[in-house]
């Protein structure tokens, strides 16, 4: 995919701020610190467009990126982040529910999982919930540069088994450091967006 333009258009804290319009979108979901913002920067070849951080839970809004004046990426705040109050967490939960239940432009969800570890309970819950709402899911097994290539297959198998990945959902081994998996991820995301 050749990227001609990419810009952040809104950081939305409330559903009424979600952008209207006909453009299809994919959402990026995953635990805090898994590499969602890094994934966006690598896919768009725009260093620093999506803010990355060593400190988990930095992204606290739904962030819309408008690409090639044709489609959107939506960076969703990382789940499994406990350092906010219970009421804040509940309010966020409702915003997220509205988004994933009602957003008609949403064509599929990229769920990022750290290739090094077996999926957490939160990962499994998120996947089940997305499938309950019948969203197509692309699993991106990220930080692949952190384990030897010879171990990728074993770790992919572990992720598939723990999630009980549906046969129609694909999995891509990815690294923001090396660009591993970038082309395959674009191919699968294009299928979700325009297929
Ligand atoms: P939140 O916005 O807090 O939910 O985090 P995030 O999922 O957006 O993660 P982010 O992209 O900010 O990355 C978190 C940390 O992991 C940063 O220090 C990144 O540099 C690092 N990181 C992300 N992807 C990779 C990768 O593929 N390989 C390696 N080695 N490090 C990565
Ligand atoms: Mg982020």
TrEMBL record:
UniProt key word Phosphoprotein: no
One Gene Ontology MF term: metal ion binding
Superkingdom assignment: Bacteria
Cofactors: Mg(2+)
GO biological processes: division septum assembly
PANTHER family: ENGB-TYPE G DOMAIN-CONTAINING PROTEIN, MSS1/TRME-RELATED GTP-BINDING PROTEIN
Function: Necessary for normal cell division and for the maintenance of normal septation.
Protein's name in the database: Probable GTP-binding protein EngB
High-level lineage: Bacteria, Bacillati, Bacillota, Bacilli, Bacillales
Encoding gene (name): engB
């Amino acid at each position: 995919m050749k990227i001609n333009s990419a810009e952040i258009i809104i950081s939305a804290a409330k559903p009424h701020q979600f952008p209207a319009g006909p453009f299809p979108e994919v959402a990026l979901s995953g635990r805090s610190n898994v590499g969602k913002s890094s994934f966006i920067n690598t896919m768009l070849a725009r260093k620093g467009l999506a803010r990355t951080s060593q400190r988990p839970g930095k992204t606290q809004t739904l962030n819309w990126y408008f690409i090639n004046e044709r489609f959107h990426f939506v960076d969703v705040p990382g789940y499994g982040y406990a350092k906010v109050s219970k009421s804040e967490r509940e309010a966020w939960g409702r915003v997220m529910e509205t988004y994933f239940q009602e957003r008609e432009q949403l064509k599929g969800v990229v769920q990022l999982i750290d290739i090094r570890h077996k999926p957490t309970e939160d990962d499994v819950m998120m996947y089940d919930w997305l499938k309950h709402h019948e969203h197509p899911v692309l699993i991106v097994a990220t930080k692949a540069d952190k384990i030897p290539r010879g171990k990728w297959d074993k770790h992919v198998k572990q992720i598939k088994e723990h999630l009980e990945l549906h046969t129609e959902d694909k999995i891509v081994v990815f690294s923001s450091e090396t660009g591993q998996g970038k082309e395959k991820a674009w191919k699968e995301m294009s299928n979700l967006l325009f297929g």
